[in-house]
Amino acid sequence: MKNLLNVVALVAVLMVLAAFVGCSTGKDTNSAGLDSFSGKITSTSISSSSRISSFPAATSSDRNSAVRQRISSNDQGRKDLSQTAAGSSAPASGLPIRPVCGDGILESGEQCDDRNIVSGDGCSSSCSIIESGWTCSAGNPCTPICGDAIVVSYERCDDGNTNSNDGCAGNCLNIEHGWRCQRGTSCTPVCGDSIIRGTETCDDGGVVRGDGCSPLCQIEGCGDGFYDPNGTNNILGDSDDEQCDDGNTDNRDGCNTACKNVRTTG
After folding, report:
1. Nearest to 66 by CA among 93, 101, 96
2. Structural domains of the chain, count
3. Which residues of 40-58 are buried (b: 16+ CB within 10 A; e: fewer)?
4. 224 in a domain, yes or no?
């Protein structure tokens, strides 16, 4: 009987040892599994980071491609909307219609759309501003406004009107012969070319004072503000000679209307 009890006790001890060994092995297996899983996560993170860092920076071509994609998306949205309006089922694509600058379609939030995203051609790159000096219609290139005194694009001049024979042609494409246009907007006749234009009262082909036609192409004489000792006849010693010329007709300022010196009293 005693031997039987010893055998039972030994069996129980062996069973406890076996259970303990099994738990230890499971722990090692689980630990190894966790380490392997952690390594996979780390490897994946590094790989993803490498792929992200290798992406190139966005270029102008990328932006244009994005615009084209949005245009394509809008085209599908409009097609769906048209089908729905015609009595078909709801749009299949579910794509929303959004304003796209550069597609040539004037939509909500846009002031213009000239089929590009470039500023300086009448419509700003965001399609939110019609630039000064231009007029724009949807889907077409913007055109300069002739007659607004703003020179843009192919205009050679713009003097604030559409009249010809005033220095700037009526279509703003040419500066007329015999004229100068400062910055393209303020036109004056060329004095000294022997042709009387605009505000000129004479043009003798020169710009010499004392020959009857002033360097500003105005008829010389008393009161023009230019002192001419020989007078308008260019003969010294006669009554036509000027003693002064202050450019006005006030007899009380020391030079009278005949361009003679007079004494003034205080």
Report:
1. 101
2. 1
3. eeeeeeeeeeeeeeeeeee
4. no
Closest among 224, 181, 173 to 189, alpha carbons compared: 181
Structure confidence at residue 64 (pLDDT): 52
Task: Give residue-wise pLDDT tens across range 94-117.
Answer: 555 677 999 999 998 899 999 999
CA 149 to chain CA centroid, Å, is 19
Q: Position 141: which residue type?
A: P
Q: What is the pLDDT of residues 86-96, one digit of tens each?
A: 444 444 455 55
8 Å CB contact between 211 and 204: yes
pTM for the model: 0.52
Question: Cα–Cα distance between 129 and 120 in angstroms, integer?
Answer: 11
Q: Which domain holds residue 92?
A: 64-98
**Tokens of residue 7, six digits:** 């055998």
The pLDDT confidence band at residue 68, using thresholds 50, 70 and 90, is low
Q: Which residue has the tokens 């007899």?
A: 251
Q: How far is CA 165 from CA 26, 132, 168, 177, 179, in A?
A: 104, 26, 7, 9, 9
Q: What is the DSSP string of the chain?
A: -HHHHHHHHHHHHHHHHHHHHHHHHHHHHHHHHHHHHHHHHHHHHHHHHHHHHTSPPP-HHHHHHHHHHHHHHHHHHHHHHHHHHTT--S-SS-PPP---TTSS---TT-S---SS--SSSSB-TTS--BPTTEE--TTS--EE-TTSS---TT-S---SS--SSSSB-TTSS-BPTTEEEETTTEEEE-TTSS---TT-S---S---TTSSB-TTS-B--TTSS---TTTTTT-TTSTT--S---SS--TTSSB-TTS-B-----
